């Protein structure tokens, strides 16, 4: 049987179990009607001279139906499909002319015409089928009967209306499926973009808090060594050794960063308190501009790795800001455990700043220091407080829950 899968513009064909079931019912109806008409003809007219021709035409009609269905199973109208339908209709018309009882095979052929031809041509062919059926039924009747004239057109209109409704429903369903698939793809693309932006933010913060700060410290130490090389070679060499130590530590951080491991200070053991003390010691020894101390009591239990890593990175970023921008000579790190929260305070005696002028986001802030700190605190569901005034130093306070949930924070 010639057939085509209905499609919507730009969408997938309306195929699947829902589309195949009506087709199977139509095919079954065609062969049942053909078989019953053939049996009726053989019982009543099997001895007539034209019986062999009727049997041959019935067999040809069945073969053409099967061949046409298999040959035109793909989507879209084709010239070959419409040609096969024309041959099928011609054979059926000759068969009905010889044996009017085969007229009711036209009902499944309505479906074939509506599936194969453009709407106007299909409706014209359905009208032809209907007229032929009426004439055949009048030939079989002994006298004129109204139901013979009215019945076939009613059946044709009903079959056409049902098919048209189902076809429109299938087209709408195909369009809906297409829209859902497109929306799903767009959502997946959006999630990939958001994941990429989040990863860029993480990389920017990690690079700023590790490699960038280390390079800044090395530059300062090497500049100091260059100034002292002639007047005080001993101190100059000490600065060079300190720069080499920072470079070695930066290499370790870079390797751990590549493998997405914990910061090197935490990996050495001792917990967050020991890592903060090591950070303060290096700031005091290496930079030689800020004396850094750590205050706090050991945690009653081990802090989650995420919290420890984030707080250490926050301390690194805050101390980098103190060293590079505040002009401070002293900084203090204080770690406080408050039940279900832990708070890290970084205080300095620098020139201070106007907190009212601080942007909420990164606009106007050089580098990633403060925005990165704000983002890290936000990702842990914590709060960041900055207390400062011009000439009075600055206190940066980050409080985070001990068991943070993942929170999406826009990239700074």
From TrEMBL:
Keywords: 4Fe-4S, Cytoplasm, Iron, Iron-sulfur, Kinase, Membrane, Metal-binding, Transferase, Transmembrane, Transmembrane helix, Two-component regulatory system. The chain crosses the membrane at residues 24-42, 51-68, 88-114, 121-140, 146-164. GO terms for molecular function: 4 iron, 4 sulfur cluster binding; metal ion binding; phosphorelay sensor kinase activity; protein dimerization activity. The keyword Calcium does not apply. Its EC number is 2.7.13.3. One of its GO terms (cellular component) is cytoplasm. PROSITE patterns: HIS_KIN (PS50109). CDD domains: HATPase_UhpB-NarQ-NarX-like. Its cofactor is [4Fe-4S] cluster. Residues 202-404 form the Histidine kinase domain. It is an enzyme of class 2 (transferase). It is found in: Cytoplasm. It catalyses: ATP + protein L-histidine = ADP + protein N-phospho-L-histidine. Member of the two-component regulatory system NreB/NreC involved in the control of dissimilatory nitrate/nitrite reduction in response to oxygen. NreB functions as a direct oxygen sensor histidine kinase which is autophosphorylated, in the absence of oxygen, probably at the conserved histidine residue, and transfers its phosphate group probably to a conserved aspartate residue of NreC. NreB/NreC activates the expression of the nitrate (narGHJI) and nitrite (nir) reductase operons, as well as the putative nitrate transporter gene narT. This is Oxygen sensor histidine kinase NreB.
């Amino acid at each position: 049987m010639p057939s085509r899968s209905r499609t919507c513009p730009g969408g997938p064909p309306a195929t699947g179990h829902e589309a195949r079931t009506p087709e199977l019912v139509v095919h079954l109806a065609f062969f049942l009607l053909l078989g019953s008409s053939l049996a009726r003809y053989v019982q009543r007219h099997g001895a007539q001279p034209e019986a062999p021709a009727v049997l041959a035409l019935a067999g040809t009609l069945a073969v053409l139906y099967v061949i046409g269905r298999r040959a035109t199973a793909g989507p879209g109208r084709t010239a070959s499909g419409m040609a096969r339908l024309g041959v099928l209709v011609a054979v059926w018309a000759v068969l009905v002319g010889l044996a009017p009882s085969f007229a009711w095979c036209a009902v499944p052929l309505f479906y074939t015409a509506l599936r194969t031809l453009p709407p106007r041509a299909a409706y014209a062919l359905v009208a032809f089928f209907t007229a032929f059926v009426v004439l055949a039924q009048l030939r079989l009747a002994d006298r004129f009967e109204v139901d013979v004239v009215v019945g076939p057109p009613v059946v044709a209109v009903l079959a056409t209306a049902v098919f048209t409704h189902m076809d429109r429903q299938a087209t709408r369903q195909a369009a809906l499926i297409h829209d859902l698939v497109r929306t799903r793809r767009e959502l997946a693309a959006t999630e990939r973009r958001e994941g990429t932006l989040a990863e860029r933010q993480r990389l920017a913060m990690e690079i700023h808090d590790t490699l960038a700060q280390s390079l800044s410290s090395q530059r300062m130490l090497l500049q100091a060594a260059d100034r002292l090389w002639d007047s005080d070679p001993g101190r100059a060499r000490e600065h060079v050794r300190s720069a080499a130590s920072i470079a070695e530590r930066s290499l370790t951080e870079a390797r751990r960063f590549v493998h997405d491991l914990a910061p090197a200070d935490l990996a050495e053991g001792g917990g967050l308190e020991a890592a903060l003390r090591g950070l303060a010691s290096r700031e005091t020894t290496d930079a030689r501009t800020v004396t850094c101390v750590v205050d706090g009591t050991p945690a009653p239990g081990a802090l989650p790795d995420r919290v420890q890593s984030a707080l250490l990175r926050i301390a690194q970023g805050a101390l980098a800001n103190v060293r590079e921008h505040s002009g401070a000579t002293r900084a203090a790190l204080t770690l406080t455990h408050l039940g279900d929260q832990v708070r890290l305070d970084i205080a300095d005696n620098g020139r201070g700043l106007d907190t009212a002028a601080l942007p909420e986001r990164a606009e106007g802030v050089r580098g990633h220091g403060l925005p990165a700190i704000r983002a890290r605190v936000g990702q842990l569901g914590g709060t960041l407080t900055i207390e400062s005034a011009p000439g009075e130093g600055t206190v940066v306070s980050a409080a985070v829950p001990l068991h943070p949930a993942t929170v999406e924070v826009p990239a700074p």
